[in-house]
Amino acid sequence: MTTRILPAVGDPDAARSVVTLLSQLPDAEPAAPVTDSTQLVDTLARLAAESLDELPEVVLVHERIGPVPALDVVREVALRFPAVGVVLITADASPVLFSAAMDSGARGLVTLPLGYEELASRVQAAAQWSAGVRRHLGAGAELATGPGGTVVTVSGAKGGVGTTVTAVHLALAARASGRTVALLDLDLQGGDIASYLDVQFRRSAADLAAITDISPRVLQDAVYVHETGLALLLAPAEGERGEEVTDRAARQIVSALRARHEVVVVDCGSQLTGANAAAIEMADTALLVTTPDVVAVRAAKRTVRMWERLQVRKAEETIALVNRHHRSTEIQPPLVQKITGTRTAGVSVPANFKELQAVVDAGRLHDLDAKSTVKQALWSLAGELGLVQPAAVPGQQGRTGKPGKQLARAGDRGSLGLRRRTGGR
Predict the structure, then answer these.
(1) pTM for the predicted model, two decimal places
(2) Are residues 191 and 273 in contact, defined by beta-carbon separation less than 8 angstroms?
């Protein structure tokens, strides 16, 4: 049986060495190396989407893959693609690292400098394990993609552009369509989700920061189940505790939520930290909220460029949402797209704060009236992003942002349908 191997090695010299040795293995079919953690996950996701049989049996992760630490890469691959055997390449062969690698989901460890016999042994063992898992479980969709819902991050170009309102209503729309939804507040020093949804809860994301293995029971203790059905993981009430949530902790938290919910919406605020940078990098969709004014659009451009420099997210992989839009404003969505290099959402949120003021002041954002043009636009956006069940939005046409019919649900105060847009949107 041919063993397909995908090396993830950032250093060109190390990559050549790995590929040279792999090409000497019997029945091995090494792919071209990927150079960073983002490319690795994207490649695996693309292969899984094309065909489950396209996934490699073995993935080799070099200890200096970057920008994400190697053990975190191993953990994410093991969670999202559980029938792929992951082998870590490292110069550290200590029992501590070996134990950490196994805890992260690695199927083996190869020490540097590479030796033919050791590499062949580890690759063969990982490939046999992968083949055994696939035979045992069959060729179902869950085999390739593993446990994992859709992750959407919502970031603000600057403060006050409507990031939290957007995140909350995307989550509410997904929940109203029947999906299990988690709403995570990673605006760690100034998160307002609790205020917007009238919640008082002493647990927060900071309580999970020091836990290396977040079990379902531990996660359940930290999550607040809101009356709407949303599972809320809030920002700490004491802003200084936000520093406890590192990028590694954020990855574990997002992975744990993703494994147990169909949709995970993350409010990342307007400041870039290690924690929300990790979430943005992991996200299936990264939304950047801006308003149609010069200051906000310039801030959006700076944010996108910073994400690119830090290898967090490419501009073309980011969706810009124009909030407080009006036809008479000089800056329109096409100009925002041109300036930032992002793709703008097909929906723009109208400038109508009067609709929001009463529910915001009352801390009952979920009680926003169904006739609200702001709510209709945000729930339309949820449909465009694919966060709602397709059957729940009659007439919706994929992810094109085209409008469909409104749907009212018993017990819900809003409509899940897509509001028909007029010219200029």
Answers:
(1) 0.67
(2) no
